[in-house]
Amino acid sequence: MSTDTTGHDARHRSPGLVVLGIVALLVAGWGAVGEPDLMSAAHLGWIAVAGGLVVGLILILTGARSSRR
């Protein structure tokens, strides 16, 4: 008999934790190569916009998926 009372599959992974893990690996790699110079502020702004679009699309797709269940 199972003692799991949460009803979640043990293999389920949180998408947020996956993203944070990838970011942590990228930061660790950045530090391992000797902390190269950062890009100009203009490029960082576009990267922030692209990141916001990706996060927004992920939120829309995961919300649409969970409403079908």
UniProtKB/TrEMBL annotation:
Keywords: Membrane, Transmembrane, Transmembrane helix. The chain crosses the membrane at residues 16-33, 45-64. It comes from the Bacteria. This is Uncharacterized protein. It comes from Gordonia insulae. The lineage of its organism: Bacteria, Bacillati, Actinomycetota, Actinomycetes, Mycobacteriales.
